[in-house]
């Protein structure tokens, strides 16, 4: 296999984890194949000078971006990775110009977190579906209506361009690319070494139900939220939950939606799907047993919920993501 150069673009105010997370994944793959390293990870800033990350760390790049400027004999990276960070909010015309002129020559173009904003300013996301950190999706959509911004997934792949959500989602995307290039076994070994999960599909939501919903202000409603999370197999009808909150069903349903941002039924659906996913990933329990443990009653009810939420059936989900980890330290 021909070695792929992964060029990570550096700039002042970059988020350090956006750089080091994917770098560790691609470098880990090369460590696993020492006789023929599949990746060569390089970093470059505009002028080759060190950059200061958003957390105050200093990163020293391997070179300047001018070395990849497309002149005769200049290397053309296989993958250009643009990380995010506070620095993406600065109007760096020179960096955007470099991306516009040279990033399209790469076979893969990746952004992590708010790195999508730099690609957007360079016009490289026009007409594409993309995502970014949840806190900046609305801004990206407002400033660049030509982009189909999807705030839900942890990463989106549209042709040769891939965009990912906040920080650690860059690791998920990098693992997905390694799996595509080198196979699942290599990606799983890297995930084990990094003590992360090779499980999160791109369409997984950036937030769990508990995080995507607001925390209710009133204690009885907060207690109900906690009860739902801890008892997905229980009677979670509006009537039962209202009784637990000591409210009428009508008042409870209105108050719950007003304070959490979603209906009780939607919240319950999300909690049950998440719980079922974890059981399918982490245990060897049968689908029927999992469906009962999550309050579905029947495997068919769980199958319908999975297809609606994740676009795949439970059995297929388990086949893809059931990877019990035994981490060597």
From TrEMBL:
Cross-referenced SUPFAM superfamilies: Class I glutamine amidotransferase-like, Homeodomain-like
Keyword Transcription: yes
InterPro entries listed in its UniProt record: Class_I_gatase-like, DJ-1/PfpI, Homeodomain-like_sf, HTH_AraC, INH-QAR
Keywords tagged on the record: Transcription, Transcription regulation
Domain HTH araC/xylS-type, first and last residues per copy: 222-320
Gene3D superfamilies listed in its UniProt record: 3.40.50.880, Homeodomain-like
Presence of keyword tRNA processing: no
Name of the molecule in the record: GlxA family transcriptional regulator
